[in-house]
Amino acid sequence: MHELSLCERLLEMLQEASQRHAFHRVTRIKLAVGQFACVDPDALRFAFDVIRRDTLADGATVDIHQPPGLVWCEDCAGEREVPTRIAPCPACGGLRLTPRGGNDLTLVELEVA
């Protein structure tokens, strides 16, 4: 479950930010987990619930937004949303697709005290 290691790194980032910006508690975290990021949002929530205990993020809520997978279709020259990396272009059925978005896991926002 690589979501646990992602949460460990997230917690490290929170601790580093707390030292730079002098806050002691995180109350809410907003993440964007792209549809192509190979991260299960439910597993990420579970892992964060486990790892945040007795830390500055103990009790923090996690909001996860999942941006769609975007591709550029070489066949019809358009950017399209697709449900999976192997799906054909929904407009023309073409298979010459280049990923354009939905790959990232991004810390979007923090609420702190």
TrEMBL record:
Keywords assigned by UniProt, alphabetized:
Metal-binding, Nickel, Zinc
Q: Could you identify this protein by its name?
A: Hydrogenase maturation factor HypA
From which domain of life does this come? Answer: Bacteria
The keyword Zinc is assigned to this record: yes
Tell me, what's a Pfam family for it?
A: HypA
The entry sums up its family as follows: Belongs to the HypA/HybF family.
Q: Which residues belong to the signal peptide in this entry?
A: none
**Source gene?**
hypA
What is the native source organism of this protein?
Azospirillum himalayense
What positions does the entry give for Ni(2+) binding?
A: H2
Alphabetical list of Gene3D superfamilies matching this protein: 3.30.2320.80
